[in-house]
Amino acid sequence: LFRPSRIRSLYSDFTRLKEINHDGYIANLEAWKKLILDMTNSPVPLLSHDRTILRISPELSHALFIDELGPPKALHDIVSYLIDQHVIEPLSSYDAHTTPGIIGYLLSSIKGLASGFTQVKLNQEYIIIPKVSSLSTEIFNLLSAKCSGSDLDIDKVFPVSEISHSIKDLKITATDLDICLLYLSKSGKLMYDRHAGVVKLHSKHNITKLDLHIADVKSAILNADTKIHSLSVAISDATEKARDCAEKGNRKEALHILRVRKIKEKSLSSYLNIREKYEEILSGIERSYLNVQQANALESSKAALSQLNSEIGSIENIENLVDDVSEQIAVSDEISHTIAPSKDSSIEEEELEEEFAQLVLEDQRSKLDNLNVPETFPDNEVKEPEQQDKQEEASED
């Protein structure tokens, strides 16, 4: 897009093309849009330390400066186009005390269509929507995985410090995280108390005082973990240094290091105890949540049973109903007997026994008939009974 044959046009004040060559005008804007989006994915001065912020300032012009052509002359049009294309949005629209970002964004777009382009303010910060969207998705997926399989509110509450610790591999700033959480909050995926620094996932209700207390406990556990890790590393390092001093015969230095190590070991033991206490508190809150759920379930079951039983009525009504049904069955039997009287409907047990014996006999005959019995036998295999008896007597003599 930034070929040598086009570079001069791209860096010129091509606003005039809007009237005489609109397609060329849009093509130049699209080229700048792609370049800036590509630059947002690279660690360049354009974004400073924040990956989600574009600063329209002299520094931006300097970052895009080319010796032969200078800075881009149509920067105002470029930024206006990025706003109207939903690529960037004023950071001020994400402030808690102004119009919500998405609504403000749509309003600014409508105004931009009416006036040709949205009014651009220089020396202003803009959030980069595609970058915010992609980072927000990663953060949301990570938080969802943390509370997957749980329907307890305690597992859906996160202090911002815990989130920041969990996403450190994303290498984003506190400002980036704040913007992403606001973005997720405005999209309805979570609740975000910006002042308290607390997030509640998968909830349409406001963050409660209980949620804040849970976040405080989780934050305290995280702080304890951080301190425990730091002290553990310091103790390990002190051990190595003391050993090195002992090998060199530096007794005084070794004893000093061991004394400091003892102090750190006491601190470590204290933080481990504190962490254990906080874990007990969190476990107690979780048990209380479960108790509340079970109590609510019992209350709901009681209400359901009460409603159903009230529809049925009293026991006396049920007994009367059963008697009425039995009476009607008897009437039906009597009517049937009157219409088609039977001679004798009783069944004799002896007749059943005879029929069963007949079935067994027929089954045995069927099996005998199916046996494959040869009609003749070889002479050496079949003997007459008298001949067989004589042979047996001879063998006995």
From TrEMBL:
<feature type="region of interest" description="Disordered">
    <location>
        <begin position="367"/>
        <end position="397"/>
    </location>
</feature>
<dbReference type="GO" id="GO:0006900">
    <property type="term" value="P:vesicle budding from membrane"/>
</dbReference>
<dbReference type="GO" id="GO:0005771">
    <property type="term" value="C:multivesicular body"/>
</dbReference>
<dbReference type="GO" id="GO:0000815">
    <property type="term" value="C:ESCRT III complex"/>
</dbReference>
<feature type="compositionally biased region" description="Basic and acidic residues">
    <location>
        <begin position="380"/>
        <end position="397"/>
    </location>
</feature>
<protein>
    <recommendedName>
        <fullName>SNF7 family protein</fullName>
    </recommendedName>
</protein>
<dbReference type="Pfam" id="PF03357">
    <property type="entry name" value="Snf7"/>
</dbReference>
<dbReference type="GO" id="GO:0009898">
    <property type="term" value="C:cytoplasmic side of plasma membrane"/>
</dbReference>
<dbReference type="GO" id="GO:0032511">
    <property type="term" value="P:late endosome to vacuole transport via multivesicular body sorting pathway"/>
</dbReference>
<dbReference type="InterPro" id="IPR005024">
    <property type="entry name" value="Snf7_fam"/>
</dbReference>
